[in-house]
């Protein structure tokens, strides 16, 4: 079985670096980069990824932005999907803060004192040290601005999915997530036949602020 890591808003997969270090070397892991995917829609991105993994069993891990991609991919691959892990993921309607993000100019995502502080507050709940913010801006600096803007729009336009999920689902919920509304997590749970919620200390960027706990949850899901 292969573990597929779907990245957050940056789409590079670069921010999985510390998480990868914590995953056992015995696991087969592939990090997806959206730079090689042409589609800008959630469903289109899932379709392109599905063509690469139609003949193998997978565990899908969706981080933040990629929550809906993971959901769509799960239904495209069907019984090939042995489990889903959501890392503070957008699957249905986001919080008001996330909806407003779609109208923020891309220039606002460039590193300066104010943006670094905001990311540290919103993304990391001001824990772990502000040095955690630097890799975020580094990865955003390697992201196509047009694609980045479209991802923000995708999040803002999210609707409520209706298809049920029959494989085991693990949702890693940060202890303080300002971007994912709790009602969204509850709604996702209502669609699942087998749903486990794990609260992990940290903010929205949970795979970066607490990679050890996230790696443990992913490993447990892979061994189910």
TrEMBL record:
Full protein name: Alpha/beta hydrolase
Organism of derivation: Pseudoalteromonas ruthenica
């Amino acid at each position: 079985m292969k573990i597929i890591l779907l990245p957050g808003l940056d789409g590079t997969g670069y921010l999985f670096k510390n998480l990868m270090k914590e995953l056992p070397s015995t696991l087969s892991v592939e990090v997806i980069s959206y730079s090689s995917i042409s589609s800008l829609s959630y469903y289109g991105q899932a379709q392109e990824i599905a063509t690469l993994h139609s003949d193998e069993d997978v565990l899908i891990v969706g981080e933040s932005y990629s929550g809906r991609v993971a959901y769509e991919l799960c239904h495209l691959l069907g019984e090939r999907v042995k489990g889903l892990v959501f890392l503070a993921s957008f699957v249905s309607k986001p919080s008001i803060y996330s909806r407003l993000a779609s109208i923020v100019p891309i220039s606002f995502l460039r590193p300066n004192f104010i943006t670094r502080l905001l990311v540290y507050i919103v993304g990391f709940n001001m824990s772990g040290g502000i040095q955690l913010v630097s890799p975020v801006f580094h990865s955003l600096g390697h992201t196509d601005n047009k694609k980045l803007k479209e991802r923000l729009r995708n999040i803002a336009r999210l609707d409520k999915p209706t298809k049920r999920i029959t494989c085991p689902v693990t949702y890693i919920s940060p202890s303080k997530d300002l971007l994912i509304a709790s009602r969204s997590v509850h709604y996702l749970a209502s669609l699942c036949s087998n749903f486990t919620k794990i609260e992990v200390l940290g903010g929205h960027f949970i795979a970066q602020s607490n990679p050890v706990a996230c790696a443990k949850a992913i490993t447990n899901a892979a061994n189910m």
